[in-house]
Amino acid sequence: MAAKTEPFIDGVIGQVRGSRVWRSVFRAGSGNSTLHRALAIQQNIFLHLLSTKVRKRMVSFRSTWYLGTLTLGTFLILVATGVLLMLYYHPSVPQAYADMKDLQFVVSSGLFLRNLHRWSAQLMVFLVFAHMFKVFYRGAYRTPREFNWVIGIVLLLITLLLSYTGYLLPWDQLAYWAITVGSNISSAVPLVGSKIHFLLLGGNQVNANALLRFYVLHCVVLPLTAFLFIAIHFWRIRKDGGLYVQQSEPKALPAIEPTMPAQEGK
Amino acid sequence: MSTPKDFIAGIDSDQRRSPTRVVFVTRRTSAQVKVNREDQVQTYPEVLFRAVLAIELLAILLVVFALFFNAPLEGIADPTHTPNPAKAPWYFLGLQELLHYFPPVVAGVLVPTMLIVSLVVIPYFDINIEASGLFLTNRARRLRIFYIVTAGLLIFLLFFKVYVAVPPTLIVALAMIVAANSTPDSPTKLRRYLAAKPFAYWIMTWFLFELIVLTAVGTWFRGPGWSWVLPWRS
Q1: CA distance A96 to A173
Q2: A contact test, residue of B24, B82, B91, B95 with most A CBs within 10 A
Q3: Do residue B55 and residue A76 have CB atoms under 8 angstroms apart?
Q4: Cα B139 vs. chain centroid, distance in angstroms?
C-alpha cells in the first residue's frame, strides 16, 4: 500500500512545488540539489537569519542540549496561547479576575490554555538561564561572539520582564502581592525611586492603572521587543561564524590605536 | 593607510565542506595552518527538521503537564489583606532572600545592577577561558589576593548573618584552592580541569551556586515573616 501511494504523493508534491503559484511565493524554487537547499534558507526572509550549513558536530544533542531552540519553542507556544487568552481577557478591575474564573469554568479548554501558558512561561525563564550557563561553560561567548552574548543578556531581561508583567494579569492575591513586593524595590532607587515606582504602576500602589500598564507591556511592547532581539540574536549566530566550536577561533581583536601622523608615510 | 600588511590573503574554497574560507597567513610563521575541515550538514532540511522535532517534543511534554497540573489561582486581589509571607515569582526569590538581610537599595538596586553589568562585561575580559587558568601565572600574588577577598567576603556574609550564602562560597573557595595547587600536568583529570579555569569561570560558578541556593531557600524554606521553615513540616 505504502509503496504505491508514495510515488503518487511525491508526484503531487512535485507538481505543487513546480506550479507557478508556488514558485511565485518561494523564490528559491524547488529541487533537491545542494544549491536549492542552500537557497531555501538564503532566499527566505525568516530562514535567512540562519546559516545555510551547520557543523555536523554542533547538531548533536550533546553540544548545545538544544537549549536555545527549546527556548524559542516555549516562546512560540507562549505567543500562540497568549493570543488566544487575549480573546477572553479584559485588563480591568475586577473583570480581570472574573475572566480567570470564566477561563476556568466557562470557556472550552480555557483552563488548559491558561495552564499551558503559565507552565511554558515558567519553563522559558528556566531555559533562558540554562541556555546562558550552557553558553558560558562552553566558552561560546568569546570573540567574535561578545555582542551576541550581550544581546542574550538583553533577551534574559526581556524574558524576566515578560514573566513579571504577566504575573499581575490574573489579578488574584498571588499576583497582587508579588507585584507589590517587586515594585516596592523600585522605590529604593536613589533620588528617582518614587518617580520610577509611580511611572511603573501609574499610581502609588498596584491598582487598575498598573494592571492596564502591565497588560500593554506584556501583550504589545515586550513581545515585539523580544521578536526584534531574537531576530538579531539568530542573525548574529550566522554573522559571527555559526554555532561555536572550540577550535580555530581567532584571537580577540586588539583595540584600534590611533595612527600617528608620522608613521603614516612608512 | 599605506602600511605594508603583515599577511597575505588567500581563499580556500571547497564547496562540499565550507562555502568560502579566507585564510590569513603571516609571513613570519610557517604556512602550515591548523585546518579544521569539519563535516557540515545543510540547515534545510536536516537542522530545521531536528529543531522542529525538539520543539514538538517540548510542546507534547508541556501539553501533557498542562492537562494534569493546574496553574495556581487564589482569591481576588485584596489590598487590605496581606498574605504572610508575600512572595515574588520564584526567579526573584533569590533577590527577595537578599532583601531580608540588606536594605532595599543594596539588595534591590545595587546587587541586580552589578549582576547585569558583570554578565555584560564577561566576554570583554581578556582572560581566555582555555588558555590561562587563574593561578597559572602570578600564582603567589593571585593566591594572596584570593585569600584576602574570600576572607573579606565571608566576614561580610557572617556580619550580615547571611548564613545561607556561606556554604556555596566555601565550596567554590575550596575548589579554587584545589585549582591553585594543581597544574595542567596534575595526575587526576579533575585537577587538570580546575587548573585551567580562568577568573570568569570561578565568578560565574559562584554566582550559579548562590543563585540556586538562595532561590531554593526563598522558595521552600521561608514562611510567615520570612522565618525559617522546613517544607516537609507544613
Answers
A1: 13
A2: B91
A3: yes
A4: 24
- DSSP three-state, residue B41: strand
Q: What is the dihedral of CA A197, A132, B192, A56, to 10 degrees?
A: -170
All domains in chain A, ordered by first residue: 62-239 (1.20.810.10)
Assess whether pLDDT exceeds 90 at residue A198.
yes
Q: Note which residues in 45-74 of chain A have CB less than 8 A from chain B.
A: 47, 50-57, 59, 66, 69-70, 72-74
Distance CA B114, CA B103 (A): 16
* Surface of A (230-249) touching B: CB under 8 A: 245-248
Residues in Cβ contact with B23 at an 8 Å cutoff, skipping those fewer than 6 apart: B9, B10, B11, B12, B33
Q: Which of A10-19, A58-67, A247-256, B221-230 bottoms out in mean pLDDT, i.e. has the lowest? A: A247-256
Closest partner residue to B89 among A66, A120, A167, by Cβ?
Answer: A167
- pLDDT above 90: percentage of residues in chain A: 58
pTM for the complete prediction? 0.85
Residues of B in contact with A37 (CB under 8 A): 42, 44-45
- pLDDT band at residue A3 using 50, 70 and 90 as cut-offs: low
Cis geometry, peptide bond prior to residue B187 (ω within 30 degrees of 0): no
B47, B100, B117: which to substitute to probe chain A, counting the most A Cβ within 10 Å? B47
pLDDT band at B5 (very low <50, low <70, confident <90, very high): low
In this predicted structure, what is the pLDDT of residue A251? 45
| pLDDT the model gives residue A55 | 87
Q: How far is A4 from chain B (nearest CA, A)?
A: 25
Radius of gyration over alpha carbons of chain A, in Å? 25
Contact A104 B73 (CB under 8 A): yes
Note the residue count of chain B. Answer: 234
Contact A173 B77 (CB under 8 A): yes
Domain ranges of chain B: 7-29+40-70, 90-233
The average confidence (pLDDT) of chain B is 84
CA–CA distances in Å: residue B200 to residues A103, B66, B118, B212: 47, 39, 10, 18
A107 close contact with B: CB closer than 8 A? no
Residues in Cβ contact with A210 at an 8 Å cutoff, skipping those fewer than 6 apart: A168, A179, A183, A200, A201, A202, A203
Q: Compare all CA atoms of chain B with the CA of A70 and give the residue at the minimum distance.
A: B55
List the grid coordinates of B85: 509571607
